[in-house]
Design a protein that fits this description.
Blueprint (H helix, E strand, L loop, with lengths): L2 H28 L2 H23 L6 H5 L7 H20 L1 H22 L11 H19 L1
């Protein structure tokens, strides 16, 4: 892994923390978490359309779209639910606890996905170091929440 990719991943993680606060503020302004989530999603869609106009990627043909399995479309559902949960929990848990729990959930799911080689991920069996790393993240949640 090059340092550029690692830096980009760190910036993406930092953006999630900022996004949680920004979206919670938008909820305060708009009055309801689903309204804030919809507004966020609309702005994201406009951003992606503008990016596509700039980069001009080729569009998939209708066979590719129609050939996708139903579960391949659930990423949007999961993203929308994630956004809504983050908006609802941001001020209840605080940024550090919220993101520590989110990251712990991500790592626990990622270890399972890697272990079974699901969704196209390379097979990486569960090992003592992987379990220890996940356990340390969970322990970090406890420490962040207690102090």
């Amino acid at each position: 892994m090059t340092w550029v990719w690692a830096l980009l991943a760190l910036l993406a993680g930092a953006a999630l923390a900022v996004q949680a606060g920004v979206n919670a503020q938008l909820r305060q302004q708009l009055g309801h978490p689903t309204t804030a989530a919809l507004a966020n999603t609309l702005v994201a869609a406009v951003t992606l359309v503008a990016t596509m106009a700039l980069l001009r990627p080729s569009l998939p043909d209708t066979r590719a779209i129609g050939g996708a399995s139903w579960w391949q479309w659930t990423g949007g559902v999961l993203g929308g639910l994630y956004l809504l949960v983050i908006i609802v929990l941001a001020y209840r848990l605080g940024a550090a606890t919220l993101l520590a729990l989110v990251i712990s959930g991500q790592v626990l799911a990622a270890v399972a996905l890697d272990h079974f080689g699901l969704l196209g991920f390379a097979h990486h069996p569960v090992s003592v170091p992987r379990v220890a790393g996940a356990a340390l993240l969970v322990a970090g949640v406890v420490l962040i929440r207690l102090f």
